Amino acid sequence: MPTPYSLITRSRELGDLMASLGKESILALDTEASSFHRYKERICLIQLSTREKTWLIDPLTVEDMGPLGKALADPAIEWVIHDADYDLRMLKKMYGFRAAKVFDTMVSTELLNEPELGLAANLKKHFGVELNKKFQKADWSKRPLSDDMLAYAAMDTHWLIGLRDILRTELEEKGRLSWAQEEFEELVHIPFIPVEEEPGFLRIKGAKALKPRQLAVLRELHAWREALAEKLDRAPFMVLGNDVMIGASKEPPVDLNELAARKGVGERTVERSGAAIMKAIAAGLALPKEEWPRVPKPKRYERDDDYEDRLKRLKQQRDAIAVGRDLRQGIVFSNHQLAEIARTLPGDPEALTSIDGVRNWQVKEFGEEILRAL
User: Over the range 237-246, which residues count as b (16 or more CB within 10 Å of their CB) and which as e?
Assistant: First the structure.
């Protein structure tokens, strides 16, 4: 049965809605973005639900989103979101909004060791609801949105508060609610810390296996693709696929005919952009050796003959805890965290807590066993 919803397309409508919801203590939220189809990643639809009603907010027509930001910042309102990290980052990026209080249903399913973490799987398990995945990769930036797309979007938040109630009860019963609350607290802060990222061309799968001269070609191709994708406002992979660029960097085509014959290219791409692609390849090949990019060397540590043995013991202990407590291994401690523990040799729980990414609940629940394994 379709979920009833109201569509909000004007600033006044949003202001009236948020004023009417001001006394709510819990609201569900989701967003649909354009990242799969467009270069300029933006929120194209916002779903909002109480326990009884659902609204769809069109941020492409609502000029003043301020009332939503004010509600998000209200510590009296708990915002229920499935996999909140992305939504929170986008709300900050586009509007500068920050949620004061969050309940993440996906984080909760992780801490409960549910076999599947996706929203669709959990709604089916707990409510017998089948989510239609037809529009998962739809272009939400297009207008008008079809009735089917709007109905699909409304389903995402309609059941979220009910799911939150079930998961919260299970977390309480297993003594893990405090774990979840610490994770939720981290969520409302982490999205607002800028992260230094490596160059885009190095983030392409397979790039770090290339030789320096091949990397020079890839860098030029990537720069050309980014510029065109931004101009066209299209997702970069729709301009030219990553596999094509990696292949052209390893074995550059000698002419347009050879380029057209490459898998994933074709005559149409060559007609539109063939000359520009060949120019980028030639520019990369022409770079002198001293200007070739290189993959940064990983951080080196002083020789430690016992490191591998310590790491092995830590992993064995972590795995035993995971089995005994019915948890995923990475929830107990991730491999990255164990590697840091093996290198830094924390001598007590306080030192263990100081390791990047380690939570207080991890130290409280598993810290002594992990430290003994050292």
Answer: eebbbbebbb
